[in-house]
Design goal:
Shape: globular
Order of helices and strands: HHEHEEHEHEHHEHEHEEEHEEHEHHEHEE
Radius of gyration: 23 Å
Largest sheet: 5 strands, parallel
Strand order of the largest sheet: 3-2-1-4-5
Distance between the termini: 11 Å
Length: about 500
């Protein structure tokens, strides 16, 4: 994997190679899309058929829903779910470097709007005003925010403005809640304040503060450092502290760009499996929930069974967090957990520790594909929130069943797996770094995913966004990287995130 210190010629070769791969596979992808349209027209129209049946049902009233972030899988999936449930869907997103996002070409959208991205120089005013114009022009009933990490707080600001200046309601936390949950240090303090368990965590603003914590920590306890803000260059650094020797520890810490203006957290390392969750919270009630195994760069999704102990434990934590919060929360709530197994005289005990919170939609929402009616009903319950029982909750909401994935498929992204499991291992084999057996195993895993898993972007009744993602959007981003000489280390195909270095 390339990094910031890698020569520019290697980054250039990386971008050129990926553009060439896209061009080489273009005929195959185009044939697949054409076949999908033909098959869809004559045989397979699952979502459109459900949509027509729901729209023809007595008493159905379609709502107009705005979904931002449709260039990402999570936004595109939600747009398709609302479309399937018979509603009118308007999409919007940023389009970096003028490269159009794949979601704008989804069949599920009635209309698409390009949004100006908030910047440090211009602030968020242009962005918020553009959103407000869309809401008023299209007479939006519900705004579902599917923001990325870079615009989470701005979406909180937009929610307050939109709900104050229009009748539209927003699935989005307010500024205060978003700011608290968005940053690692404030989330940890808030979780502690609510009386819920967290790993040992310290907010540090100097190298001296790091060494003081390490010096007084118990032996055999390890820590990892995380930047409080968004920093792609160090996001993947999972170096355990202290190192084997004092000099190695000092050498590593000396390379960390830490200051009062750029604080870090020093968090206890928990040796265990990582899991993530996605929840929809409406007026202080969890309406929808899924949990799945996680990773530092998560590109494969498989839901935990809803009756499993881990699923129930993470759902219980989420419900308790929401219940103990002082405000009536409405928005997407996603936690990252580490699960440590502690052996004692009573047997093995699982210890669940939240390490991070993302107050926004999670790509794990893809696991709800095919449940448009149930999912949209959960979101649209916010529009009925004015009919309350006196304490801010809907009548009977105490006994509402929480929606979980029904027979979810396993999800992957074919572009990511092609490079990760086939092409890179082939390069390593040719360089003599791995055996042919290792490469063949990767090819076998790739074919298993193609045959038995489901691509996170592709739908046979809506194939164009998938084609556009791999043959227009990403080649456009790679070309922009060449022209601007930007270095990047990794990409997340599902979130369209490019990790600069």
């Amino acid at each position: 994997m390339l990094n910031g210190s890698s020569p520019w010629r290697l980054h250039l070769a990386q971008n050129v190679a990926l553009i060439f791969i896209s061009i080489f596979l273009l005929p195959l992808s185009t044939s697949l899309v054409c076949t999908s349209y033909i098959v869809g027209f004559f045989l397979y129209q699952d979502a459109p058929r459900k949509r027509k049946r729901i729209q023809a049902s007595r008493g159905f009233v379609p709502q107009t829903v705005l979904i931002t972030g449709v260039g990402m899988t999570k936004g595109l999936v939600l747009a398709r779910l609302f479309y399937e449930a018979g509603h009118d869907v308007v999409g919007a997103d940023f389009e970096p470097f003028g490269v159009q996002v794949c979601g704008r070409y989804s069949r599920s959208l009635r209309k698409f709007f390009k949004l100006p991205k908030p910047t440090a120089e211009d602030g968020s005013a242009y962005y918020i005003n553009a959103l407000l114009r869309v809401v008023k022009q299209e007479r939006i009933d519900l705004w579902v925010s599917c923001s990325g990490v870079a615009s989470a707080v701005e979406d909180g600001q937009a929610k307050e403005v939109i709900e104050r200046r229009s009748s539209c309601r927003a699935i989005q936390f307010d500024v205060a809640t978003t700011s608290t949950l968005h940053e690692k240090d404030t989330f940890t303090r808030e979780t502690e304040r609510l009386g819920l368990p967290v790993p040992e965590t310290y907010n540090v603003t100097s190298r001296d503060a790091v060494h003081k914590v390490l010096h007084r920590s118990p032996k055999r306890r390890s820590y990892i450092m995380k930047s409080v803000g968004v920093d792609d260059a160090v996001r993947g650094d999972m170096t355990l502290l202290p190192r084997r020797t004092v000099s190695e520890t000092y050498n590593h810490v000396s390379q960390i760009p830490i200051s009062d203006q750029k604080p870090w957290v020093l968090q206890q390392f928990i040796k265990g499996k990582e899991y993530c969750t996605h929840a929809l919270v409406v007026e202080g009630k969890v309406k929808l929930f899924v949990a799945c195994p996680s990773a530092e760069l998560l590109m494969r999704y498989e839901a935990l069974p809803s009756d499993s102990a881990l699923h129930r434990a993470m759902l219980a934590f989420t419900k308790e967090f929401v219940a103990r919060s002082e405000k009536s929360m409405t928005g997407h709530l996603s936690f990252d957990f580490l699960v440590d197994e502690d052996a004692n005289e009573k047997g093995a005990e699982l210890m669940l520790k939240p390490i991070e919170c993302n107050p926004r939609a999670h790509t794990a929402v893809v696991l709800f594909s095919g449940q448009g009616k149930e999912v949209s009903k959960s979101y649209l319950s916010l529009l009925e929130a004015n009919i309350t029982n006196g304490n801010g909750h809907l009548p009977g909401s105490e006994e509402e069943e929480i929606i979980t994935p029904a027979q979810p498929a396993k999800y992957y992204w074919v572009g990511h797996d092609l490079v990760k499991l086939v092409l890179l291992p082939l390069l390593y084999f040719l360089q003599g770094r791995i055996s042919i057996q290792s490469w063949l195993q990767g090819c076998s895993d790739f074919m298993a995913h193609v045959l038995f898993w489901k691509d996170g972007t592709f739908e046979i009744w809506d194939p164009l966004p998938w084609w556009w993602l791999y043959h227009v959007y990403w080649p456009g981003q790679f070309l922009a990287s060449i022209l601007q000489q930007r270095k990047w280390s990794r990409i997340n195909v599902g979130t369209t995130k490019m990790f600069l270095c």
